[in-house]
TrEMBL record:
<keyword id="KW-0560">Oxidoreductase</keyword>
<keyword id="KW-0464">Manganese</keyword>
<comment type="subunit">
    <text>Homodimer.</text>
</comment>
<feature type="binding site">
    <location>
        <position position="98"/>
    </location>
    <ligand>
        <name>substrate</name>
    </ligand>
</feature>
<dbReference type="InterPro" id="IPR024084">
    <property type="entry name" value="IsoPropMal-DH-like_dom"/>
</dbReference>
<dbReference type="Pfam" id="PF00180">
    <property type="entry name" value="Iso_dh"/>
</dbReference>
<dbReference type="GO" id="GO:0003862">
    <property type="term" value="F:3-isopropylmalate dehydrogenase activity"/>
</dbReference>
<dbReference type="InterPro" id="IPR019818">
    <property type="entry name" value="IsoCit/isopropylmalate_DH_CS"/>
</dbReference>
<keyword id="KW-0479">Metal-binding</keyword>
<keyword id="KW-0520">NAD</keyword>
<keyword id="KW-0460">Magnesium</keyword>
<feature type="site" description="Important for catalysis">
    <location>
        <position position="144"/>
    </location>
</feature>
<feature type="binding site">
    <location>
        <begin position="77"/>
        <end position="90"/>
    </location>
    <ligand>
        <name>NAD(+)</name>
    </ligand>
</feature>
<comment type="similarity">
    <text>Belongs to the isocitrate and isopropylmalate dehydrogenases family. LeuB type 1 subfamily.</text>
</comment>
<comment type="pathway">
    <text>Amino-acid biosynthesis; L-leucine biosynthesis; L-leucine from 3-methyl-2-oxobutanoate: step 3/4.</text>
</comment>
<feature type="binding site">
    <location>
        <begin position="284"/>
        <end position="296"/>
    </location>
    <ligand>
        <name>NAD(+)</name>
    </ligand>
</feature>
<dbReference type="InterPro" id="IPR004429">
    <property type="entry name" value="Isopropylmalate_DH"/>
</dbReference>
Length: 362
């Protein structure tokens, strides 16, 4: 009998490469903590289009429904970029899964590790002040999901439209996620919006203020998205939890990843109100480096840690992974994108990094 059943959806590009490493780490924690996992692998994204004619085949969805949680790699790539939007892997599989399971609360923790400030492309004195931010991104509404969207008209009069739409309830539940998280961290929520222009942002501010009343010990500040993008480079140490709508959180989280040194370091958890979740690197399928064995597997490995912590409550196993990752990085077991060009000959491969993390746990 297994303790847990996981749906493993590796996807496209570097997805399968980094997933191999997460599975090594899962095997190590499974041994160490005497946990039994049943892993069921399913096609998703471009590979599923190639093999089954659709990005999210019914068997994949059913497998996810039957699982305790989903470990997701990444999807998409040039091969499928010219399909109609609604058939593309990003929309037909990733957004479809987020919507289907109502995974509204997307947590993306980014930090500069102590002693590893040199990974950051920021000026040394700025990086030295530290950076430890949790981006809380609304994931199932806003301009990604708002209706109507479409393309109408002809010639130069042809026009495209997307709808940004938020209900009070949608804003409230993601704001609560942010305040709950802040209460366990440094007690500050920075809500990112464009309230000087967007009606959605006006409502966002109003509801966020209401939620703040229930968390008197947490400080709330509002900031416009353009200023936030700038402040993150000027002094990222000023932030704790950054609460964002769907599109703004997408953009800000890539920026946060790069402040720490690499897209390949940022994990994510996408959780619904029952605690069911999908866990995936915040970055994509990285077609530019896929197939070379050089992708950083840390974001995938840390996504596994978040799965254990948030969906399975296996805190000791999650802590062991986090500790092993920190030691791997500080021992200098690094993929090339974290190194300066002069040091790149010391780069380790995807599998060397995964082996090292797994060996530290064993
Ligand atoms: P990307 O995140 O795939 O890559 C951006 C840059 O970051 C690239 O230079 C890439 O090499 C680098 N990078 C990303 N992950 C890395 C890792 N683990 N190690 C080292 N470097 C890493 O973004 P993109 O190029 O805009 O998108 C490529 C494809 O991925 C597109 O089809 C996009 O829609 C899709 N995508 C999917 C997801 C997902 O599945 N969750 C997320 C983002 C983008
Ligand atoms: C992410 C990705 C996705 C998003 C894309 C692939 C649809 O960029 O998870 O950040 O925009 O949410
Ligand atoms: Mn993104």
């Amino acid at each position: 009998m297994s303790d847990y059943k996981l749906a493993v959806l590796a996807g496209d590009g570097i997805g399968p490469e980094v997933m191999v490493e997460a599975k090594k780490v899962l095997a190590a924690v499974s041994n160490k903590f005497d946990l039994k996992f049943e892993l069921n692998e399913y096609d998703v994204g471009g590979i599923a289009i190639d093999n089954h004619g659709q990005a999210l085949p019914p068997a994949t969805l059913k497998g996810c429904e039957d699982a305790d949680a989903i470990l997701f790699g990444s999807i998409g790539g040039p091969k499928w970029d010219n399909l109609p939007l609604e058939q593309r892997p990003e929309r037909a599989a990733l957004l479809a899964l987020r919507g289907h399971f109502d995974l509204f609360s997307n947590l993306r923790p980014a930090k500069i590790y102590k002693g590893l400030e040199n990974f950051s492309p920021l000026r040394a004195d700025i990086a030295a002040k530290g950076f430890d931010v949790l981006v809380v991104r609304e994931l199932t509404s806003g301009i990604y999901f708002g209706q109507p969207k479409g393309l109408e008209g002809e010639g130069e009069e042809e026009f495209a439209f997307d709808t940004m739409r938020y209900t009070r309830a949608e804003i409230r539940r993601i704001a609560i996620s942010a305040f709950e998280a802040a209460q366990k961290r440094n007690k500050k929520v920075t809500s990112v919006d464009k309230a000087n222009v967007l009606v959605c942002s006006r409502l966002w501010r109003e509801v966020t203020e209401e939620v703040a009343q229930d968390y008197p010990e947490v400080e709330l500040e509002h900031i416009y998205i353009d200023n936030a993008a700038m402040q993150l480079i000027r002094d990222p140490s000023q932030y704790d939890v950054m609460l964002c709508s769907n599109l703004f959180g997408d953009i800000i989280s890539d920026e946060c990843a790069m402040i720490t040194g690499s897209m390949g370091l940022l994990p994510s958890a996408s959780i619904n109100s029952d605690g069911y979740g999908m866990y995936e690197p915040a970055g994509g399928s990285a077609p530019d480096i896929a197939g070379k064995g050089i992708a950083n597997p840390i974001a995938q490995i840390l996504s596994l840690s978040m799965l254990l912590r948030f969906s399975l409550n296996e805190v000791a196993a999650a802590d062991a992974i986090d500790t092993a990752v920190t030691k791997t990085l500080s021992d200098g077991i690094l993929t090339g994108e974290l190194l300066t060009p002069e040091n790149r000959d010391q780069a380790k491969s995807t599998s060397q990094v995964g082996d090292y993390v797994a060996s530290l746990i064993a």
